[in-house]
Amino acid sequence: MNNKEDERVDTGVKEPYFWNPRTHEFLGRTASSWGLILLFYLVFYIFLGGMFVLTMYVMLLTLDDYKPTYQDRLVTPGMMIRPRGEAMEILYNTKDTESFDIYAQTLNNFLESYNNSLQVQNNDECPPDNYFIQEDSGEVRNNPKRSCQFNRSTLEECSGITDRTYGYQKGQPCVLIKLNRVIGMLPGKDGQSPYVTCGAKRYKVGQDEWKEDSDAIGELAYYPPNGTFNLMYFPYYGKKAQLNYSQPLVAVKFLNISLNTDVNVECKINSNTLKTGGERDKFAGRVSFKLRITSPKN
């Protein structure tokens, strides 16, 4: 047989795979073959990269720098406290300065931007109980938008101005409460501002047994009065549109909370447009935390 397939004689010697000096093949391919493969993948990945960049560019053209194109959010915003401690627990000893100094320092740092001098310098003194609406003129942006003053002194005994320990040393701690920011939210109607109320949290202690620490929570004081988030701080227009926006706060002071025991507290927002809890998030519009103030008798 004179077929070309039979021209090669099987000598029984296996040719090297990594580098074949006779055929000049590297890993079974010649230099030209490797070059064509590398060229193909180079062009292929450049094309994929170009498609990705083009897609991102087109998507960015549809976005508004100042307002989300689509807003999928809960009807009621979440709430948060300061200081929040670990696992939403505030635990300290009135005789151990270091144990509550960390909470006082946290509040100091948080309230720095609320100093009266900074607020007067950066924000407007707005008429209360009305929304501070700043509409755009057609395609002309009314930016940057102004913000209303929230002076630190509004928090009175919980401002840290007259008491640098925020009541922690006396066993009368202050806790600051804030609503999460939601662009365009109007949290009240008919001139009624939303307000915060705190009380004992109902919690489960057995299979069918519930408990709350009503007797231990004691009297509460709210700052500003009645714990209101005044309407003048709404709507919020976004971080880029309102550069100096000062989020309104409510301070709760525990005047005679029981010592040396765990007290479970729950605070919630009360509004004629916002509902607390819901099918999507039962914690919407409320926040829970634990307070334990240790005060040795000796």
From TrEMBL:
Residues annotated as transmembrane: 36-63
GO MF annotations, alphabetized: ATPase activator activity
Biological process annotations from GO: intracellular potassium ion homeostasis; intracellular sodium ion homeostasis; potassium ion import across plasma membrane; sodium ion export across plasma membrane
Glycoprotein in keyword set: yes
Keyword Transferase: no
Cellular location(s): Cell membrane; Membrane
InterPro entries tied to this protein: Na/K_ATPase_sub_beta, Na/K_ATPase_sub_beta_sf
Entry-linked PROSITE patterns: ATPASE_NA_K_BETA_2 (PS00391)
Membrane topology: Single-pass type II membrane protein
Keywords, in A-Z order: Cell membrane, Disulfide bond, Glycoprotein, Ion transport, Membrane, Potassium, Potassium transport, Signal-anchor, Sodium, Sodium transport, Sodium/potassium transport, Transmembrane, Transmembrane helix, Transport
GO cellular component, one term: sodium:potassium-exchanging ATPase complex
Pfam family, one: Na_K-ATPase
Family designation: Belongs to the X(+)/potassium ATPases subunit beta family.
Role this protein plays: This is the non-catalytic component of the active enzyme, which catalyzes the hydrolysis of ATP coupled with the exchange of Na(+) and K(+) ions across the plasma membrane.
Protein name: Sodium/potassium-transporting ATPase subunit beta
Species, as recorded: Oncorhynchus kisutch (Coho salmon)
Lineage: Eukaryota, Metazoa, Chordata, Craniata, Vertebrata
Gene coding for it: atp1b2a
